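ARCHIVE CARD
Drawer: 12
Card no.: 0347
Subject: one protein chain, sequence and derived structure
Cross-reference: see card 0346
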Amino acid sequence: MNQERETAQAARITRRGLLRTAGIGTGAIVATTLGTAPATATPGAGWENVKDHGAVGNGTADDLAAIRAAIDAVDAQGGGIVFFPSGRYRLGDALRIGDGSDAAVSTRHHRVTLQGSGRGGSPSLNFVQNDGATELVYDGPVDPDAAALSLEGPLHSLAVSNMVVNANAKAGYGVRVNHVTDSIFTNVMTRAATVSGWILTSRNGFPPGCVYGCGNNVLLHCWSYDAEPAAHGLVMTSGVTESVTLTGNPDAANNDVIGGVYFYGGSAGTAGFFLHGADNNTVYGAQAIPSGGAQGGSSVYFQPWSGDPRFPLENVFTNIGMSQDVGGTSGTFGNIFTTFQEGDGAALPDLPYITAMSHRGVQSAYGKRVLRTRDLQLAALATSTTVTTPDYSGVPGLSVALTGVASGSARVRTTFTGVIEKAQGGTGDLCLAVDGVPIEHTRQRAAAGAGQVNASAAVVVEADSETPELSVVARSSNGHPLTVHAGSLTVEELY
């Protein structure tokens, strides 16, 4: 009875409605992010339901042959949609699209869309809505080189949407995108990968620094979830990673990861995003959270490429939230984080050749913190003033009290210039102070009989409170006047 109802529901999904949905979903992204649009189904394109080819979707039967038959049927029509009604589709081996040849042009499986009925919610939440999801479950041999869904190019204009791809702790990868261009992945979740939830790579050789074997692809609202302890979330690579050897030497380039994207890596030694020989990739609005918690790996990890140590380079992360720090070794350059969500727990990256700015305006560039003036105040003497006390006391008119300082991340720079004179024997000292506490290494001394002496002092200190008071203090060794004839105090909050 349930099968009859499901068949009836599938029948009510009109071909025109599916085509309209596919057109809207890709067109909105293409208009803003892609120079070359992935092809979508048109009224003349094919449409195949995997259940019409014998797929069951009950999580028990091996549906791999039926799914392959549906893909081949669409391919024979020049491309189109392979539709997966809700269900769990067991795969006795990897589901491969493309022939994986080393030729420059492939003759198979271009313009194919795999369209599910939804990926449901987080696997940790037992919502009823999850029962209506489409899930591909790898149940082949345990193999770290296998991928539950393996797109083996050269391929272009593919699309995958609205499904879960479960590596089932058996396959190394959830989705492998190998030498694929101009394609879009929407609302796709990978689960239980042992090496990486996603990998974008290539196989054909290109000149170093001019590599686009896997490029112009978009991941929109995609997840890598429930990774095994040693797995990354997403790998963009060329050549050898820490966990697996890949053929060829090109990289992943010009790919976009957009909006509401969550890449959960595993434990120590893993990363939410692992970039190796990748350039000109852009990540918008993503979360990179290794699931190992405080013992987790890096949220983003840069691994220089042995073929050219400048890579990975010119990758941009915009509005990214990270629970762990950015890791890797120096030698990469031109990678940018803007804006960086400090509230998710990760420190602002300070690796060489990385530039970053947080939501609060904190900035680092090429391994060093960038300090800018957030507030500036000035105090100056209108007339000469004297100090006679043997202990340090404030010079009237030379103090500034700041408010609203970003304590813990800001610094305060204080600069004094003026003229001092000691009379009637002894010496007089003048120095800068924070909250009345003298900073001895800024001391300026005037001896009796030396006449008027130019004095200057400057210091940068950490802001320990939101309301620090910066001032000039002075003392006289014998109780006779130390005169400050002229002076100005400049105080800057650096952020």
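Annotation on reverse: Confidence is low (pLDDT under 50) at residues 1-44, 125-129, 204-212, 239-251. The helical segments are 2-12, 15-33, 64-76.
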